[in-house]
UniProtKB/TrEMBL annotation:
One GO cellular component, as annotated: cytoplasm
GO biological process: CTP biosynthetic process; GTP biosynthetic process; UTP biosynthetic process
One Pfam entry name: NDK
Database matches in Gene3D superfamilies: Nucleoside diphosphate kinase-like domain
Family: Belongs to the NDK family.
Subunit annotation: Homotetramer.
Protein name, entry field: Nucleoside diphosphate kinase
Cofactor(s) the protein requires to work: Mg(2+)
Enzyme class: transferase
Lineage of producing organism: Bacteria, Pseudomonadati, Pseudomonadota, Alphaproteobacteria, Sphingomonadales
Binding site for ATP: 9, 57, 85, 91, 102, 112
Enzyme Commission number: 2.7.4.6
GO molecular function, one term: nucleoside diphosphate kinase activity
Amino acid sequence: GTRTFSIIKPDATRRNLTGKVTAMLEEAGLRVVASKRIHMTREQAEGFYAVHKERPFFGELVDFMISGPVVVQVLEGENAMQRNRDIMGATNPADAAPGTIRKELAESLEANTVHGSDSDENAAIEIAFFFNEDEIV
Ligand code: ATP
Ligand code: MG
């Protein structure tokens, strides 16, 4: 299989949904091969979302992502990046398909429960941002 990178966002850790989100990922055929709960610093969140720094919602997105702990994970499976995007659902939960994580669990466009890498190239970059290779087993 291949790998992708996931974040269980602060809205989900706040509502004690870490297990429910992880179960939905596992039921979709993804294996959690690395996982840690962290509280990102502002510098980490700004670095992670640097691609969005010109977007109007960047400041609010960073504030949200440091509003509580997150769980960063490496997921492995056949076609892991696309498989994860499919189970996450659309960015805006109002547009997400039934059965997806965002449709079932997300609060809003911003507080949308999960992040998932949007390409294999970005997955490798995002994994390396949070994990050393020896933490992935
Ligand atoms: P993610 O990157 O978190 O997996 P995504 O790829 O579906 O989500 P992006 O377009 O990369 O969506 O936006 C990154 C995140 O920024 C979204 O998940 C959401 O939390 C937030 N976001 C996106 N668009 C808006 C917006 N218009 N207003 C507020 N927040 C937004
Ligand atoms: Mg994205």
